[in-house]
Design brief:
The structure is a single chain. By secondary structure, this protein is mostly helical. The protein has two domains: 1-50, no CATH class; 52-122, no CATH class. Helix content is 75%, strand content 0%. Helix 3 (54-69) packs antiparallel against helix 4. It is elongated, with a radius of gyration of 26 Å. The model has no long low-confidence stretch (mean pLDDT 81).
Length: 122
């Protein structure tokens, strides 16, 4: 998007500088409006992601961060890099449906566990 313009004298240079300052101000206000509130930031991130699922987008960053801070906190750089690469390759498989399925399975397991515990106390 290079827009080459021949400037022949000082007046044209000053006019171009003024035009670029106005353009810079307009673009600055547009960027500030996109990051004005948490909802605006969320919608900006969602528009940048396109059709990607929010869970897969978040898991791309959260899985490696969580694993490297908890399970692999005392590991070296090579192990943390491998964990990051492997978890980012696995992140497309983490979507809204898989998260709901895992949540429903764990909820059923916990409900069944507490139901057995309460019935054995009778």
């Amino acid at each position: 998007m290079t827009n080459l313009m021949t400037i022949n004298n000082l007046g044209e240079l000053q006019a171009e500088v003024a035009r670029l300052r106005i353009l810079s101000g307009e673009q600055g206000r547009a960027v500030a409006a996109r990051f004005k509130s948490p909802l605006a930031i969320f919608s900006t991130a969602q528009s940048l992601a396109g059709h990607a699922d929010l869970f897969s987008l978040a898991s791309r960053f959260l899985i490696p961060l969580t694993l490297n801070k908890t399970l692999f906190s005392s590991s070296g750089v090579l192990v943390k890099t491998l964990v990051t690469l492997v978890s980012q390759k696995a992140s497309p498989y983490v979507n809204e449906a898989s998260v709901h399925k895992a949540f429903d399975t764990s909820k059923a397991f916990i409900t069944q566990l507490f139901h057995k515990t309460s019935s054995s106390n009778l």
